[in-house]
Each structure stands twice: as structure tokens, then as C-alpha cells.
């Protein structure tokens, strides 16, 4: 049998063409957000402006899926869960599908007037940034097939590092359009800092492809502090003269303004750390050279 014929046939098959329960579960799960929006739309449960709400939901899932795709490499190493890599491409392609849906719904909202759509993209900087990210994701999706991976060889990995830039553009687009409501965008920013920080630290300090857990703990603290400061700076700018740095940072230690983004980032970091510790206790990392990175 040629290697061409041995290629994965269905999205839920693993490399040996056997059904992978992990891939099947993720494959089904990836349809749920769009399915939920479709049902809510048809049944009239998307609020007063259903199309706008549908655009928002697909945009949110695009950025969430990009972050989930970026989380696979660190989680695979920390949890020593090699097979997690099987779903990375699927999640990335789903992010592309969601952004196309987001864009298609935006075009629908503009009554399919492509001239207006194009001029809005040129005029409004947050749309220009979003569109640039969409073009980037399209390039990654087109080069995601087994054939393209083989054809591009080493260049493939360099090209796919574009996802970091695309994620930054997506996060800027998200923050800019959210205007005063920065709670979830700030959480997304904090998690992105953690994900990039992991890569930076793993590049320097990984042992057999795995960042030692004390570093993971330190990374959690750093990402939490940066998120708290990021939000404080935003408060200082948005409420100029009415807020001090101390009061802005103090909101993280009370529930007066609800659970702050830094607290959510701290919880995320702690959950990953505890899972990593539990995994190490159950099965210490292999002695040989692991291929986690
Ligand atoms: C990777 C690319 C993109 C990502 C990650 C993304 C993500 C998002 C997110 C997270 C939101 C906010 C959802 C919310 O607050 O509930 C949003 C809103 C929006 N996006 Fe995107 N988007 C992208 C590309 C685009 C493109 C190409 C367009 C159209 C040209 C677009 C148009 C919009 C519009 C019109 C809104 C709503 C703005 C408002 O109601 O004021 N996005 N997007």
C-alpha cells in the first residue's frame, strides 16, 4: 500500500486509520457552538438583534479555538498526553471554519453589499485587523493537508508559527470592538501570555521536551500579575483621574466588581499546575527523549 493510500481517511481516524475516541469526541464537540447558535436563531432565542448576536458568538468561538489550539502543545507536555496532538489540526481548522462563518454572517448583516463590506474593512481599523487575521488563518488552513505538510517540509513549521501573530491580531480586534466591556478579552489576553510564556520558557529550560513544574508554577504567577497590571492600566486610561493604580489592583482582592480576569488566569494556571503534579505522581515522565515540544 502506498503512503498516499495509508493517509487518514476520516477526521475521527488516527494515523493507523483506526477510530480514535478522542478525535471523534472533539470532532462532534466542535460543531456544538455553531449548532447551538443555529438552534437559538431558528427558535428566536438570540435576543433583539439575532444576527449581531450570531456574529458575536462565532467571533468568540474563533478566538477561543485559536487559544485552545495553542494550548495543546503545553498541555500535551505537562499532562504527558501524547495523543492530544491528534486533535491540534482539527481544532485549528475549526477556528478557520468559525471565522468564515463570522465573516459570512457579517456580510449577511450588510445585506450582501460587498462594496460596503470592502469599504468598511478599509475604513474601520478593527475590521482591517480582523480581516488580516482571517487571511492569515486561510493560509494556515490551506496548508494544513497531509500533502502540504509533506510538500513544505521544514518550511511548514515556520509558516505555521504565523498563528501567534494571527492570535495577537484576533485579540486586538476583540478588545477594540468590545469597547468598555473588557472582562473576557482581558482573560483571553492573560491566557495568551501564559501560552506564549510557556513556549519561551520551554525553549530555554525544558528537560526532555517538558518544562519542569516549578517553572510552570512561576509562569502562572507571572501571567496573573501581568493580567492584573494590564487590567489596571486599562482602568487608569478608561477612568482617567477617577481611579488610582492601588484601587485598580485592589479590585482583584475583593468581589465588589465580580471575579476579576487576573483571578480567572490564576485559577487556570493553578488547575494546569495541579493536573501536572497529579500526572507526575501517577506516572513520572519517561527517561528517554520524549517528543513533547
Ligand atoms: C481571526 C479573525 C477574527 C477573530 C478572532 C474575530 C473575533 C471576534 C470577536 C471575539 C468578537 C467579539 C464577540 C463579542 O464580544 O461577543 C468579534 C466581533 C466582531 N467581528 Fe470579528 N473576528 C475576526 C475577524 C473578523 C472579520 C474578518 C470581520 C469582518 C470583516 C469581523 C467582524 C466583526 C464584527 C462586525 C463584530 C461585531 C462588532 C460590533 O458589534 O460592534 N471579524 N470578532
Can you tag this structure with a few keywords?
293 residues; mainly alpha; 12 helices; binds protoporphyrin IX containing FE
Write the layout of secondary structure elements.
Layout: H1 21-42, H2 50-78, H3 88-109, H4 114-123, H5 125-142, H6 146-152, H7 154-160, H8 162-178, H9 183-205, H10 213-238, H11 245-250, H12 261-282
Bound molecules: protoporphyrin IX containing FE.
Protein described:
With 293 residues, the chain is mostly helical. The protein has twelve helices and no strands. It has helices at residues 21-42, 50-78, 88-109, 114-123, 125-142, 146-152, 154-160, 162-178, 183-205, 213-238, 245-250, 261-282. Helix 4 (114-123) crosses helix 5. Protoporphyrin IX containing FE (HEM) binds at residues 52, 55-56, 59-60, 62-63, 99, 102-103, 106, 121, 127, 130-131, 133-134, 137, 170, 173-174, 177-178.
Please sum up the structure shown.
With 293 residues, the chain is mainly alpha-helical. The protein is built from twelve helices and no strands.
Q: Which distinct ligands sit in these coordinates?
A: protoporphyrin IX containing FE
Enumerate the spans where pLDDT stays under 50 for 5 or more consecutive residues. none
Count of DSSP helices?
Answer: 12
pLDDT averaged over residues: 93
Distance between the termini: 31 Å
Rg computed from alpha carbons, rounded to a whole number of angstroms: 21 Å
Name the helix and strand elements from N-terminus to C-terminus, one letter apiece.
HHHHHHHHHHHH
Structural class: mainly alpha
Biggest beta-sheet profile: none
Tally of extended strands?
Answer: 0
Assign an overall shape.
globular
Give the fraction of residues assigned to helices. over 70%
Strand content: under 5%
